[in-house]
Amino acid sequence: MLMNKVNLRKSVTFSVILSWIFALSCTNHVVPSKPDTLCSRISGLPRFYPCEFEILKIDVLSDSTGITLATATKEKPFVSIPLSRAASKGFYSGHNQQGWASYAAKMTIRRLSKPSFPTPTGYKIQFVRLDNDDNPYNEALYGTTTIKPEVAVEETAVINGGIMLEYFSTPTKVLTLNYIYSIKNPVTAQMLKDTPNNYELLRDQAEAHITMQVELTD
Q1: pLDDT digit string (tens) for 7-40?
Q2: Residue 89 has what DSSP assignment?
């Protein structure tokens, strides 16, 4: 991988297409109000099993200071992140417009209910990209990692890790696509995927998911 100096025009934006990398580190906090365990599928129909978690937010952090650069929530999924504050970055060899950047990040989750099925191997955090913004059913799985959060119902946890972003420079047009981070109980997900439930979408099989629309600037 060739590391080159990034020289970009102000407000140049990028489409981001890669993965989330986690090193699990949970901090529990009591949530006083009892959360609602009901959740819906992408179609709006109720999910057969209650959702275990809610992803409250994703914080993208500065390279060295740990200052929050941007926060994505369910209500505000769009984030603008300065490329100059990446922990590391560069261009792929032979591709002067295709690059990568990594950032420290943390995900805050809340447990809504007990597992419908035990998962001794842990949970999967999935990175899913929608290949066509106009088609919410056109999912592409780009990466997974395993976590084992010990979180009681009505408590939250902070999962520390990082995001690795791959981008294409586009100086004439803003490209912001939908990228999904989700938490999957592999056992429950398989039950939902199998007959008679036949859930096809990864987001419907997941216990929680959140959209993050990314714009990189410099």
Answers
A1: 333 333 333 434 455 544 454 544 434 444 568 9
A2: E
Largest CA-CA distance found in the chain, in angstroms, rounded: 54
Q: CA 62, CA 87: separation in Å to the nearest integer? A: 7
User: Strand pairing of 13-16 and 68-73?
Assistant: unpaired
Spatial separation of the C-alpha atoms in residues 51 and 181, rounded to whole Å:
15
Taking the C-alpha atoms of 138, 185, 126 and 209 in order, what is their torsion angle to the nearest 10 degrees? 70
Give the Cα separation of 199 and 206 in Å (integer): 10
Rounded CA separation 81/218 (Å): 8
CB 14 within 8 A of CB 168: yes
**Residue 67 CB coordination number (10 Å):** 10
* CATH number of this structure's domain 17-217: 2.70.50
